[in-house]
Amino acid sequence: MNANLKTVIHSLTPIQSAVIRVMGSMGDSYAPFEAPTLALYAAALKQAGIVESDIKVEVPGVQQTLIALQEKNLVWKASRGVYAVEEHVIVDLLRADGLLEGL
After folding, report:
1. Residue 78 backbone zone (phi > 0: left; psi -120 to 50: alpha; other: beta)
2. Is residue 12 a part of any domain in this protein?
3. 70, 73, 87, 89: which is closest to 32 by C-alpha?
4. Quick check: helix, strand or coil at residue 84?
5. What is the pTM (predicted TM-score) of this model?
6. How far apart are CA 102 and CA 75, in angstroms?
7. What are the pLDDT tens digits along the chain (103 aa)?
8. Domains: count for the chain
9. Using CA atoms, how far apart are residues 28 and 48, in angstroms rounded to an integer?
């Protein structure tokens, strides 16, 4: 199961990867659309090698990204604006691969 999850995680688009990494690093304090969180998405994209001039993180794009992550069963939505990583093992895998460092 972990191998399948790793495959899914490593096949995410850059913004999907950034959002789930930030979610994993913030835990229960994750607030998807607040300015500091948007800045963390941008930092995660920069860490992933995206050229700074190409990084545009906006609320509508984050909303679409969260929907895509829900469809991949990586994220669940508890209520309006409240999202969480589907299973803690996902955070463990992100941490083991060093994908939460610096966020």
Report:
1. alpha
2. yes
3. 70
4. strand
5. 0.87
6. 21
7. 688 888 898 899 999 999 999 999 998 899 999 999 999 999 999 999 999 899 999 999 999 999 999 999 999 888 777 888 888 899 988 999 888 988 8
8. 1
9. 24
